[in-house]
Amino acid sequence: xxxxxxxxxxxxxxxxxxxxxxxxxxxxxxxxxxxxxxxxxxxxxxxxxxxxxxxxxxxxxxxxxxxxxxxxxxxxxxxxxxxxxxxxxxxxxxxxxxxxxxxxxxxxxxxxxxxxxxxxxxxxxxxxxxxxxxxxxxxxxxxxxxxxxxxxxxxxxxxxxxxxxxxxxxxxxxxxxxxxxxxxxxxxxxxxxxxxxxxxxxxxxxxxxxxxxxxxxxxxxxxxxxxxxxxxxxxxxxxxxxxxxxxxxxxxxxxxxxxxxxxxxxxxxxxxxxxxxxxxxxxxxxxxxxxxxxxxxxxxxxxxxxxxxxxxxxxxxxxxxxxxxxxxxxxxxxxxx
Length: 337
Ligand code: SF4
Hints:
The chain is an alpha/beta fold. 26% of the residues lie in helices and 24% in strands. It folds into three domains: 45 residues, no CATH class; 244 residues, TIM Barrel; 43 residues, no CATH class.
């Protein structure tokens, strides 16, 4: 195990972890809410440094990032655990592992091995994803620093619950982030997710201000956050506080983990949410998790289809020098073509 960063020692061998907004105070012999950081005799350790539980090459569109090097490959990695307890988690087998399981799962992989695999396999970026990268901060930081030296970009796919201190450390090494906005009601964050809304809103604004390319994802769950007013509140927040050029991904829910009884999101709800996003003034609103549906990026000025996608693949990309070839409007994003 490796000594953790971003914590302080307290009286009686207690420690306070300052990695995420939970700011757990941890007694000796105990772990924080995420289960992956343990206090041993007044020193905080991370149990997941280099303990890789998932390692795949994904299209960057699968993160989802639609305006960041479209069509490129993202070397995607995760370690076990999470600081949230979303009852609808779709990766719960790796995010909600027991205390004991954490030290028994995963394969030891060094940052050098991750970066050299990504480079060898022609990946434009490394994505810290599937579980929550905040809680494998030390490992993601070391990989990210090394990746940048090799000209590889770094992507966080995150619940956005990190502290300011952590964001300031990882921020300069991140090129893009997809952050979940899982609801717009603090009550839902507390009851269904195991966190609070405000730190996520604050971090979304901060990530944008730091100049990291930002896209936002909201999973729409029947009976939980599918009320039109709540969806409007989310869309207005993205448009007004983050910017109309920030892509917003509305994702379809399927029954999972502790929400088996809730039906999949109806397609008409997703369409309603998409309409609400455009009404709020957002230029790029996408529906995800729907098989065989085309998702297109249109020029916000002339309406021309610029990128056509299906099932995370790019069918066409007509963006030229970052602009619409028809009317010259600049299209927001990085490495668009
Ligand atoms: S990362 Fe968050 S949940 Fe885990 S110990 Fe630190 S403050 Fe607690």
